[in-house]
Design brief:
Distance between the termini: 45 Å
Number of helices: 8
Structural class: alpha+beta
Number of strands: 9
Helix content: 40-55%
Shape: globular
Length: about 200
């Protein structure tokens, strides 16, 4: 891990952060406040960023790659709640505010690079910049709504309908997510997913 200021690709990193859905449009003085707090971290496919049930919580801004939010039952069966890629973020904010352990894990689906900071630092930053806080909390609400809609979709739509909805909502991710991961998210077998993708729509 390294800070942005000492990173050899710092100019590219700053451009990527400037496109993030939460951080974009911040004035220069706000960037001056947040940049020293951020650490750049690289993860390999399958690496764990945050562990379900733990109390260590962080805020992530995705620079490259894809992350997934996943919940596991006591028997180890997993359910993928969402995917997130460049310009998006993932967070432990709700658990931090509710003083509860992490209800899900955050895992790298592909090689990934993120800018991250502890939830304590992030909440402190938000308290100093209420305009960013308002935008961030709106995105958290949208994210929670997205997860809820996905869960309902698994019960209400048939297999072709679930795939069609994903194509419509996330066309940019369709070819990037490994087949096994996407099949799991849609509650399909990889074979069923392959068959559906081969059909002309």
């Amino acid at each position: 891990m390294s800070s942005i200021d000492t990173h050899p690709q710092r100019n590219t990193l700053r451009l990527q952060l400037g496109q993030n859905l939460v951080l974009k449009d911040m004035p220069p003085r706000t960037w001056v406040d947040i940049e020293p707090l951020l650490e750049i971290a690289d993860f390999g496919k399958g690496d764990l960023l945050v562990n379900q049930g733990h109390s260590a919580m962080e805020q992530f801004f995705i620079l490259d790659g894809i992350l997934k939010r996943v919940v596991s039952d006591p028997k180890g069966k997993e359910m993928i709640l969402r995917f997130a890629a460049e310009t998006d973020m993932d967070t432990s904010y709700a658990a931090w505010r509710l003083h509860t352990p992490m209800p899900y894990s955050i895992v790298a689906v592909t090689k990934a690079r993120v800018a991250k900071l502890s939830m304590q630092q992030w909440v402190g930053f938000l308290e100093r910049h209420t305009d960013v806080k308002a935008r961030f909390e709106y995105e958290v609400m949208s994210l929670m709504s997205e997860v809820m809609a996905h869960t309902i979709t698994l019960h209400l739509l048939d297999a072709p309908g679930r795939l069609s909805r994903f194509k419509r909502k996330h066309p940019e991710l369709l070819a990037r997510i490994p087949k096994k991961e996407l099949a799991s998210y849609l509650n399909l077998t990889p074979e069923t997913l392959s068959r559906l993708k081969q059909k002309k729509t």
